[in-house]
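Researcher: Next entry: Peptide/nickel transport system permease protein (Maritalea mobilis).
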Amino acid sequence: MRTSSRFIVGRLIDLAVVLFGVSIIVFMMIRLIPGDAVAIMLGANTEITPERIAELEARIGLDKPIYVQYFDWIWGAVRGDFGTSIWTGRPVMSEISANLWPTLELTFLSVLFGAGLSIPIGCFMAEARGKGAEVAVRIGAIAGLTIPSFWLGIVSIFMVSKLLPGVSALGYVPFSEDPLGNLQRMILPVIALGLPMLANLSRLVRSAMLDALSQDYIRTARAKGVPQRGLVYKHALRNALIPFITSVGVATGYLLGGAIVVEQVFAIPGLGRLVLGAIAERNYPLVQASILVMTASFVMVNFFVDLLYAYIDPRVSQ
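Model: Predicted structure:
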């Protein structure tokens, strides 16, 4: 078996082990949430009797030993069946699919915003090292790391409501129905979610570029008369992108988690609002499936980043 094949198989095994561990953690943590879940499911307007509690527990499988509940759930998950929502009676995957696209769009646009702008900003800071403009940009990057996304979102909504009262900053419109309206409503959430990523990655690109620009091959290229812009964007940037790609993968996973808070602030009907509502309702099947899907997405992103990293630098797979 070739080295690259062994590398991929090894990463797939790691992926399976991580997902298995995550599934156990998710399953157990949901059952540690305080409160009588069955009583909450029955509702305040229903007479709660031992018979009704036993009936509901039998219907959703809570009367079985906990290890049997887990294996029933994970076996269904492997087959794509996460059960049915306790409150709506619809398949859990249908509930998730209906709320998945806004979260994916918000995350994707935030990655484009954060990762796309970080490269030119980071290169600028490396090229203009020590100058006043570079210091100002670096201070701005540090500020971007310290500002919480939810606070930035709230402030941006307030500013838009005062300065542009006719512009709608809340809610969500599908891109297929109104492309301009969709992008208009996504601008502020994308900035709020992607700004910390932009600040972090731009500082990373700056450090990697400074290291690359100090290498011997750069000095040789400069001695041969290669223009400064060519040194920065053609020679140094190629090597600086390796740690950048790894960080983009990790940051993308964290953006999926941060999207939960941003969706609440901007009233976006994504997975974040779905998960929070399901937790409040003790909707076990929906909470478990939603968190597992989001976690699996995080793990899969990093899996593909590992493959891309190995492709760019074959020494990684040795």
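Model: Note for the record: The first helix runs from residue 3 to 31.
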